[in-house]
């Protein structure tokens, strides 16, 4: 842990700090179990990344993450720093190299972190430093968008030999010369596969293993520093034990994800023809394309086998020609035995704060909160194609009408019995249905009709034959006279409020929710005038 003690009274007074008291500045942690597992079972490939802490003190968490034999992330070390600067990165990498040693040709990968690229150029030029293609493309497409340019970029990034890379770059130059010049300016940085050395035994071009680990500890980053570090240690301790138990159920000699990738390479061998040159050397052809393979040295001229350690489709074609298993030519770093050795070290449990004894050292004060310029941001800066909501891509479905794009509260579709009939396009509002319900329950006080339609300005109310009771007087004539009088009055002096009236048929009433009440009112009144009331 690194602390800072203020002895200058002017600076301490300016920041309202106490002189002579240590303040927390940085803390570096590399657990012994993670260190031993990395040196025994992991490849010399380390990913670097930093993420913001969400506590009151602020700061950032720097992580160094590796790849285990099953192509999963393996946390190696992490540190809490005040900010992501060249000085903090130099301090972290110096401590990391002091733990793992500097006798190997380590390979590092990161995005274009602040001060990190220049740190490797100034201090460790002997180590290979790769750039994450996803972050590089995000900067590239700001000035050079387009689907075709995107496809050419990723084809160039995945090209495993120089000749293919040059052909793709020439094709890009014919489409957009400025885009070609922008990528050509980054030729000194290693971002494409053909630039990689064969020491790391991995051909990954993105730093997703660090992103996965940062997202896994997202819920821990809002806690205080000591509580966050304890949660991370406990998570790593239990993860090691879970992986030790899971690998016991694997029956093959190769890890599961590597077998899946090897199967894809096997499926691509049908396009290639192996020509035996002698001993263990072959020439593999497919039309005008041809590559040379040497099974004894695990070499293919496409360099895909050399970079990853997994036989490519050209090599598997030659292996099948010799009637051998492709699993025998997979590098030992992907074996199950290597995976067991990687997670064999145990991260020792420790006692809690209730078992701690006083150390007699002056208590360390909380870190000094750095206030960046400008208005504080609540949310991180999102990428242009990143969804803004967790429900992005999930369409809402209305429970009332069953349509997509809205919910039941904002539904504007047809509701009620009229929606099931042909020729009806408008819905009955809730207030109108409540009014009709009250009218049907009290037929002695008949109100005016509230059923409207924009297509029929004036129309008769009855279009079906009314029902009669035995012994009741026949009222069809009177009803016809009333309707005829209403038509004459409406045609002579049209009322603007009556322009939206429409025909209410018996089928409409039967299809509604209160059909029984409406029909009972018709039986007693002899017509629908008892339901809707007399026209004025």
From TrEMBL:
**Domain SWIM-type residue range list:** 291-323
Q: Which GO terms describe its molecular function?
A: nucleic acid binding; zinc ion binding
List the InterPro entries hit by this protein, alphabetically: MULE_transposase_dom, Znf_CCHC, Znf_PMZ, Znf_SWIM
Q: Where are the transmembrane segments?
A: none
Annotated keywords = Metal-binding, Zinc, Zinc-finger
Residue numbers spanned by region Disordered = 354-397, 409-515
Question: Is Zinc there in the keyword field?
Answer: yes
Composition bias (Basic residues) maps to 368-381
Residue ranges of every copy of the CCHC-type domain listed in the record: 398-412
Q: Where is the composition biased (Polar residues)?
A: 417-458, 475-515
Q: Does the keyword Zinc-finger apply?
A: yes
Please name the PANTHER family in this protein's record: MUTATOR TRANSPOSASE MUDRA PROTEIN, POLYPROTEIN, PUTATIVE-RELATED
Identify this protein by name: SWIM-type domain-containing protein
Q: Which organism is it from?
A: Lithocarpus litseifolius
């Amino acid at each position: 842990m690194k602390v800072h003690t203020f002895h200058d009274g002017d600076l301490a007074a300016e920041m309202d700090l106490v002189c002579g008291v240590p303040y927390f500045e940085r803390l570096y942690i590399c657990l012994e179990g993670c260190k031993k597992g990395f040196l025994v079972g992991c490849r010399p490939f380390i990913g670097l990344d930093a993420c913001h802490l969400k506590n009151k003190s602020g700061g950032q968490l720097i992580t160094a993450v590796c790849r285990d034999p099953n192509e999963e992330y393996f946390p190696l070390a992490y540190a809490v720093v005040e900010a992501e600067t060249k000085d903090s990165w130099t301090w972290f990498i110096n401590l990391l190299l002091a733990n793992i040693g500097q006798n190997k040709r380590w390979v590092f990968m990161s995005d274009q972190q602040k001060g990190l690229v220049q740190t490797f150029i100034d201090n460790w030029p002997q180590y290979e430093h790769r750039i994450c293609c996803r972050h590089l493309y995000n900067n590239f497409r700001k000035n050079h968008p387009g689907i075709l340019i995107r496809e050419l970029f990723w084809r160039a990034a995945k090209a495993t030999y120089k000749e293919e890379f040059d052909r793709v770059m020439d094709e890009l130059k014919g489409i957009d010369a400025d885009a070609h010049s922008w990528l050509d300016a980054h030729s000194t940085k290693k971002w494409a596969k053909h630039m990689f050395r064969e020491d790391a035994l991995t051909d990954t071009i993105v730093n997703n293993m660090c992103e996965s680990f940062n997202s896994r500890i997202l819920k821990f980053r809002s806690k205080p520093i000591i509580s966050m570090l304890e949660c991370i240690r406990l998570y790593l301790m239990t993860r090691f034990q879970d992986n030790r138990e899971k690998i016991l159920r694997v029956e093959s000699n190769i890890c599961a994800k590597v077998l899946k990738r090897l199967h894809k390479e096997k499926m691509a061998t049908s396009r290639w023809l192996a020509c035996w040159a002698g001993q263990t050397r072959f020439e593999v052809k497919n039309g005008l394309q041809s590559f040379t393979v040497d099974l004894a040295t695990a070499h293919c001229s496409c360099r895909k086998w050399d970079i990853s350690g997994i036989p490519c489709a050209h090599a598997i074609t030659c292996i099948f020609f010799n009637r051998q298993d492709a699993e025998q030519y997979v590098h030992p770093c992907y074996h199950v035995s290597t995976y067991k050795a990687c997670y064999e070290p145990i991260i020792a449990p420790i006692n809690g704060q209730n078992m701690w004894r006083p150390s007699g050292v002056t208590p360390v004060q909380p870190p000094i909160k750095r206030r960046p310029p400008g208005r504080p941001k609540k949310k991180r800066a999102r990428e242009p194609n990143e969804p803004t909501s967790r429900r992005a891509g999930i369409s809402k479905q209305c429970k009332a009408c069953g349509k997509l794009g809205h919910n039941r509260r904002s539904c504007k579709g047809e509701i009620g019995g009229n929606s099931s009939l042909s020729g009806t396009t408008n819905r009955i509002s809730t207030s109108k249905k409540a009014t009709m319900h009250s009218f049907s329950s009290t037929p002695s006080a008949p109100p005016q009709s509230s059923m409207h339609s924009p297509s029929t300005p004036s129309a008769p109310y009855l279009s079906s034959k009314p029902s009669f009771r035995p012994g009741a007087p026949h009222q069809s004539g009177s009803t016809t006279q009333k309707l005829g009088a209403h038509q004459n009055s409406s045609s002579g002096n049209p009322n603007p409020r009556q322009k939206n009236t429409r025909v209410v048929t018996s089928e409409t009433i039967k299809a509604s929710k209160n059909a029984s009440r409406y029909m009972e009112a018709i039986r007693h009144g002899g017509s629908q005038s008892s339901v809707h009331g007399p026209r004025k």
